């Protein structure tokens, strides 16, 4: 808390001005970008993977302050407590660190990454609501969640009585080992698709299983450097329907990797809906959608090169350190 002391007409005045809270983020990779674009937080400590995404995305231009934060993945309790921090934010999965911080008497916000079977909207809403007591974001939180809900309804109405394409979202692709799961189910169902795998934890799927599923559409997340052209050129997948029809797409990346909950969930659902149902959404301009969204929610007028970066993300954002 900053304090201003002065005298007006001989009368003593003492006014407290709230400084931007200093925040350390432990383990929750999407949070630094969310805090950067949605709050006035001063990032003091962030995960290394979060730093990598920010370095190779539009965060680099609009929130260069991330470079001033300390970065790391293997958290040490003593080192964290030594930081000049007002708030520590950690995930329930980081149980030992979270407990140690709370036992030390510092302010800790614990967040879950799984609300209602990895429902992206409900998980994002949970994060935003938990942050409300510390940042002046309640009104725009409500506006954002309302916007996402309206997009969900629009997609549901437009695709209600038509066949749903079978969709696969590749979370990671490491040495031909494909993993999927978690948030895939919500993203596919909420964009007018069918998830032939159903909801479940992260799982590896073999080439044989992919052929059994034979998806109509394949999306590649930003948790892997894999590009659509790389997948299309792999001989072992040449027989897939999605490959034959050239329906393999890379997910956009605005402030963070949208396989996980992100502030751009609404535009991402529209992106998925457009490629799941190209005839139904043929008039939808995704570039214009992101442009309008950024202006409405962040008061940022994106330039053409920034829109291109969102829709054609740097492959380096998929690298983990």
Automatic annotation (TrEMBL):
<feature type="domain" description="Fe/B12 periplasmic-binding">
    <location>
        <begin position="22"/>
        <end position="280"/>
    </location>
</feature>
<dbReference type="InterPro" id="IPR002491">
    <property type="entry name" value="ABC_transptr_periplasmic_BD"/>
</dbReference>
<dbReference type="Pfam" id="PF01497">
    <property type="entry name" value="Peripla_BP_2"/>
</dbReference>
<protein>
    <recommendedName>
        <fullName>Fe/B12 periplasmic-binding domain-containing protein</fullName>
    </recommendedName>
</protein>
<dbReference type="InterPro" id="IPR050902">
    <property type="entry name" value="ABC_Transporter_SBP"/>
</dbReference>
């Amino acid at each position: 808390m900053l304090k201003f002391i002065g005298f007006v007409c001989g009368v003593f005045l003492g006014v407290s001005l709230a400084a931007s809270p200093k925040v350390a983020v432990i383990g929750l990779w999407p949070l630094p970008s969310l805090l950067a674009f949605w709050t006035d937080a001063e990032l003091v400590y962030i995960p290394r993977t979060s730093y990598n995404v920010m370095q190779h995305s539009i965060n680099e231009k609009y929130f260069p302050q991330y470079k001033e934060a300390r970065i790391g993945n293997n958290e040490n309790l003593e080192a964290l407590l030594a930081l000049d921090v007002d708030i520590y934010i950690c995930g329930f999965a980081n149980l030992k660190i979270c407990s140690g911080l709370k036992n030390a008497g510092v302010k800790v916000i614990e967040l879950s990454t799984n609300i209602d079977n990895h429902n992206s909207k409900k998980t994002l809403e949970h994060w935003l609501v938990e942050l409300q007591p510390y940042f002046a974001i309640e009104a725009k939180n409500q506006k954002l969640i309302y916007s996402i809900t309206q997009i969900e309804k629009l997609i549901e109405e437009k695709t209600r009585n038509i066949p749903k394409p079978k969709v696969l979202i590749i979370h990671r692709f490491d040495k031909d080992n494909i993993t999927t799961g978690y948030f895939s189910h919500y993203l596919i169902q909420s964009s007018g698709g069918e998830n032939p795998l159903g909801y479940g934890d992260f799982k590896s799927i073999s080439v044989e299983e992919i052929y059994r599923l034979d998806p109509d559409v394949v999306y590649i997340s930003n948790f892997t450097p894999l590009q659509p052209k790389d997948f299309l050129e792999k001989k072992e997948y040449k027989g897939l329907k999605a490959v034959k029809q050239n329906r393999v797409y890379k997910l956009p990346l605005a402030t963070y990797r949208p396989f996980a909950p992100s502030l751009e969930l609404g535009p991402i659902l529209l992106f998925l809906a457009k490629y799941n149902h190209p005839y139904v959404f043929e008039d939808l301009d995704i570039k214009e959608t992101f442009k309008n969204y950024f202006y409405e929610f962040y008061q940022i007028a994106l330039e053409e090169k920034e829109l291109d970066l969102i829709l054609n993300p740097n492959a380096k954002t998929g690298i983990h350190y």
